[in-house]
Amino acid sequence: MRWTRRLRLCVAGAVAASALSAAPGAARAAAPRDGRLTDLVDPFIGTEDEGNAFPGAAVPFGMVQLSPDTGHSTGYDHGQDHIRGFSLVHLSGVGCRLGGDLPVLPTTGEVTRTDNAKYAAGFRHEHEAASPGYYRVALDSGIEAELTATARTGVQRYTFPVTDKANVLLDAAQALHKGVSSEVEILDDRTVRTAVTGRGFCMDTKPYTVYTVTRFDRPFSAYGTWDGSAVTDGSRTGRDGAYVRFDTTKDRTVEATTSLSYVDARGAAGNLRAEGGRPFDAVRDAARRAWEDRLDDVRATGGTPTLRRTFYSSLYRAFLAPNIGSDADGRYTGWDRRIHRARGFTYYQNWSLWDTYRTQSQLLSLLAPREARDMAISVIRIDEESGWLPKWGYGTVETNIMTGDPVTPFLTNAYQQGLLTGYEDRAYAALRKNADGVPPADSPAVGRDANPDYLTKGFAPYLKGHSPTKAGHSDYAFGASATLEYALSDAMLARMARDLGHREDAERFAARAQNYRRIFDPATGFFRARDASGAFTGPADPARSEGFHEGTSWQYQWLVPQDLPGMVELIGGKRAANDRLDSFFAYDRLVRDPARTAREVWVNGPYDYYHADKYNPQNEPDLIAPYTYLSTGEPWKTTDVVHAALTLFTDTPTGITGNDDLGTMSAWNVLSSIGLFPVQPGYDTWGLSTPVFERVDLTLDRRYYPRGGLTIRAPGTSDRDRYVQTVRANGVTYDRTYLTTGKLRTLGTLDFAVGPRPSRWGTGPEAAPPALE
After folding, report:
1. Residue 417 to residues 356, 369, 492, 503: CA-CA distances in angstroms?
2. Which of 20, 89, 166, 280 could tie 248 with a disulfide, CB 3.0–4.6 Å?
3. Mind giving me the DSSP string for 641-683?
4. Is there a domain that residue 82 lies in?
């Protein structure tokens, strides 16, 4: 079935593919032509106000993301008007400097300046366009640049004015990260090789190296290199960069393919042989077909054009990462700095786990299970090769950014979704070691660095300003939120241990899953940090609490998905919990004016995490919070809050709520829009809420979903008729507010009847997702 669709799309794509036309102002995705979903995707969404998306060319999960850099810390800012270069590596929505390796820029005239901030080319957005796998801009210099990509190569086409001094600058020493060192070598009259070593992210890290080979479609007429600011014409080797020159008086077009490897120069050359050698248009058409095939797994019917554009643009961004890390020959650089070979799977890298374990990993498990399996295997290999599981990994290094134990729910989710067949014991051994220990001093990982106290005291103490001896964050600096994250992970690991027959471990981890109670302060009714002596510390006001990473006690109070009934009991019961939820979401204002409440009450800036008592839809700790009403007997309020939060996603450059964090926010949008959300991350529970589309057809992998698909219907759904009246699963009345993955695999249809007022659906005593035991 999938192969038939691939063939159909290949034929359609070959006939219909064409470049985007420029439109006034910011580029926009056109209405679908011939039913192409790629025409609904606008890569410029999220490129302003710290959404930190990139508009350039990539294929799903590709190693290369060839995109313009304007001077913003993560690459491209729609508010800027000069391009410093088109570089190979970008991660969608990260919050710190990363990537930007080997910026390349076409120029004309003599090459005298080597600082890309000085030779940056002006441009206007009306001369810019993008679609999945393709980017184009007409620079003020009169040069048109077009970009496309394969998995491991970036392909460029430059159309120059008539001149005998058409240059392409390869600026190896400048990138988005810091501490760059580089080498450049011109191999022959068409080929340039580089090696770029960099380091850093939010904090300093171990260095990593990327190797590139750039092959042009015709010989240079001249070339040179530079070290520092000194340009040496005719030189074949240099430290910082190189230029190559062409005569475009007769043929104005120059094409080049740049391959990337994290292994060595041989790997870059092999990737070029495997994926290079095709004309630009052929590569662009193949990239579009790859995206069309991926997006076609989710066919949404109904909704406004704006809603469809935001939805499919979010789906596109959710498939940008993690990224292929192995070369075409299967070799990759492990976290032990040694070269390994992936046999029987593709090795992936780039793990924003604190973000993605809550939404994106579940979406990929559902829609891309084969890739998600390889991703999980890759994480297991990191442990086996380096000695420890990752926390926030970039390329071949650990950054240790963020807190808690996000790798556990990431891997237990893969297990619960059936993706670890044959790897269960290896995964469990790695997770058990991670949950019970601390990485040794010679490991770059910090892991659960607060474990010595957590395992003896039942909580991670808050030590204000504490920094680890290694790069990254320390859980001691955010003891309250680290305790909640550890307890969540312990609950998920307990269920895996029980399934695998490790009864004593299961009981031990299940008991630790209750440690969230250790930081509950009965005097305030909220979670509070404890100091090393065990005393509550920091302001008693939960809106000004300390010890929570990127949030307050108000925002972390619902991060107990393993035991919401227990949390509700601590608060004082369902009525008290609902009162607190209503205050948290400003519910009375919300029902009167959802969009305005979302923008004026909830949202206070992309990095404004503290001193708040309201829901923050822009940040990860609150992603599950709207679904808490499913456990408090008022499920219609989940729909109210979710639909209000969805208004924050728009089809403009400011259309992502804060950093996208490698598809995290985009996946939230996709899952919430179809009415199916992972309410217990790391387990197999999917919460239900009203879809925003009248019909969504999901194509699912038959190896994991025997029916091969699921149709979700909500006829008449709208801003007015948004409340669930009944749900029918395979035609049978279904009263619960959640599904398990096991149940989901049996379904062919899931039907929502909707109306203008709340109903009794989902309010029964057995309707809510149960606590994990």
Report:
1. 16, 9, 13, 21
2. 166
3. HHHHHHTT--SSTT-SSS--TTTHHHHHHHHHHHTEEESSBTB
4. yes
Of 281, 310, 332, the one marking the end of a domain is: 281
In a domain, 85, yes or no: yes
Question: Which is it for strands 222-227 and 241-246: parallel, antiparallel or unpaired?
Answer: antiparallel
pLDDT of residue 22: 32
- For 316, other C-beta atoms within 10 Å of its C-beta total 30
DSSP state of 30: P
Query: What tokens appear for 594 in the block?
Result: 């959802």
Task: For the chain, state the CA radius of gyration.
Answer: 26
Report which of 326, 386, 397 is spatially closest to residue 177, judged by C-alpha positions: 397
Q: Does residue 492 fall inside a structural domain?
A: no
- What is the extent of the structural domain holding 670? 615-773
Interstrand relation of 749-755 and 709-713 (parallel, antiparallel or unpaired): parallel
Q: Which residues contact 247 (CB under 8 A, 6 or more apart)?
A: 163, 164, 166, 221
Phi (first) and psi of residue 83, to 5 degrees: -105, 125
Per-residue pLDDT reduced to its tens digit, 460-481: 999 998 988 888 999 999 999 9
Query: Quick check: 511 pLDDT over 70?
Result: yes
Helices (H), 319-472: 353-356, 360-367, 369-386, 407-416, 424-436, 451-457
**What is the phi/psi pair of residue 367, to 5°?**
-100, -20
Q: What tokens appear for 487 in the block?
A: 């307890």
Cα 215 to chain center, whole Å? 31
Structure tokens at 191: 């080929």
Any idea which residue has 């190189």 for tokens?
242
Read off the CATH number of the domain in which 215 is found: 2.70.98.10
Summarised one tens digit per residue, pLDDT across range 645-677 is 999 999 999 999 889 999 999 999 999 999 999
Q: What is the DSSP string of 195-245?
A: EEEEE-SSS----EEEEEEEEESS--SEEEEEETTEEEET-SEESSEEEEE
d(C-alpha 473, C-alpha 249), whole Å: 55
Helix axes 369-386, 424-436, angle to 10 degrees: 50
Distances (CA, A) of 210 to 216, 272, 331, 691: 20, 14, 14, 43
Pairing label, strands 253-261, 685-688: unpaired
Distance (Å, rounded) from C-alpha 767 to C-alpha 773? 17
> What CATH code is carried by the domain that includes residue 694?
3.30.2080.10
Whether residue 526 is contained in a domain is answered as no
As a 3-state breakdown, the chain gives helix, strand, coil percent values, each rounded to 5, of 30, 20, 45
pLDDT at 34: 57
State both tokens at 703: 């190896």
Contacts 24+ apart (CB under 8 A), 757-762: 757/723, 758/634, 758/636, 758/723, 759/636, 759/723, 759/724, 759/725, 759/726, 761/635, 761/724, 761/725, 761/726, 761/727, 761/735, 762/630, 762/635, 762/688, 762/724, 762/735, 762/736, 762/737
What distance lies between CA 554 and its chain's CA centroid?
25
Q: Is the peptide bond before 322 cis (omega within 30 degrees of 0)?
A: yes
Which of 281, 314, 329 is the last residue before a domain boundary? 281
Which residues, at least 6 apart from 158, have a Cβ–Cβ distance to it below 8 Å?
Answer: 106, 143, 144, 145, 146, 166, 168, 253, 254, 255, 256
For residue 66, what is the DSSP state? B
Q: How many Cβ atoms sit within 10 Å of the Cβ of residue 178?
A: 12
**For the chain, what is the mean pLDDT?**
93
